[in-house]
């Protein structure tokens, strides 16, 4: 029986794969080629669209060679993306880039055009020329070139750090919106009045270590209802758990070994974090890009300031969202069935500003932009979340005191500036 975790990993593999769509394109190209050969004998084409065997062979041969060359060109672009991502951006961004649907569509179109043309090419002889197929192959080349131009335009514009930061921010906020437990069916209860007490009656452990990539919340809730117990998920999505670590605690009923294995299959573990149920991973990528820009090898504080713009937008949205340290899910009768760990506002804020403060204090514009971020959050967020912001402001103040002993430079670093330098204080 395939577990939910296995199906999740399979979906992840398919979404990140760069070879499945091109292979499908090859298959579709061969099938369409056979269809074109069959239809060509039943329908005629205008005289102006008829070809000699030599002309058709030359055209299709050129198309086959061109498609192979274009496939190599797109692969070369992919290698350049990997080099830039690992050198100046963040290796974590690659998990999002692998999912680029346009790139897969371009590869599939090139592969399909190649297979279509090759299928026609092997059926040409002196007495049989697939006129309709050669014409369609030319149209396929036109479509392929159009998609290549669109891909190059997208590639040259979307590979800038600020464009990547915008994409990551929007993806993270979409995941945050979709991953709220209250939207998954079970009723969200008050976590302060529903706390399982005492030691667990059974625990579910991981067989192999890995990062917690996702949870089947509905499956866990249904299992808790079916077994008549309360299930408590121990690790947070994004945590790395070693082999043998406790994944789930059961309160109120012992679990058979087969039941424990079935529950373990509702927690997907992998080699690294994914963004599917982990909006904080988007913030992690943004911070990584900013920190990389602040390194001595890159030394580009302006890029860090641009990324801070998107970190600020992310934090403003998260700061207004309903965040809980624990999510207690139950039935309509109000009985608790599933307890999930949550990430609070303080954790998001710490993740968003700590490393940028530690690595960017030496840059005047980073200090000023970071202060503007924190002061903007202090003015806009609810009262109960301002304490964490004040704490980060105090840490920034202490870092500025250490870094800038001269009074004038210290005063300049303390000023809030939404552009870093030159935007007004």
Describe this structure as you would to a colleague.
The N and C termini lie far apart (62 Å). The model has no long low-confidence stretch (mean pLDDT 89). With 425 residues, this protein is an alpha+beta fold. The chain is built from 15 helices and 9 strands. It has a 6-stranded mixed sheet, with helices on one face. A hairpin with a 5-residue loop joins strand 8 (326-330) and strand 9 (336-341). The protein is flat, with a radius of gyration of 28 Å. The longest helix is centred in the N-terminal third of the chain and has 35 residues, at 53-87. It has helices at residues 4-16, 20-40, 53-87, 94-97, 101-121, 131-158, 161-178, 217-227, 257-264, 279-294, 301-320, 345-360, 364-380, 386-403, 407-414, and strands spanning 187-189, 202-205, 210-215, 230-233, 240-241, 246-251, 267-270, 326-330, 336-341. Helix 10 (279-294) runs parallel beside helix 12.
How would you describe this structure in keywords?
9 strands; six-stranded mixed β-sheet; 425 residues; flat; three-stranded antiparallel β-sheet; 15 helices; 60% helix; alpha+beta
The best one-word shape is flat
User: What is the string of SSEs from the N terminus onward?
Assistant: HHHHHHHEEEHEEEHEHHEEHHHH
Instruction: Calculate the terminal CA-CA distance, rounded to whole Å.
Output: 62 Å
Provide the spatial order of strands within the biggest beta sheet. Answer: 1-8-9-4-6-2
Described by strand count, sense and barrel closure, the largest sheet is: 6 strands, mixed
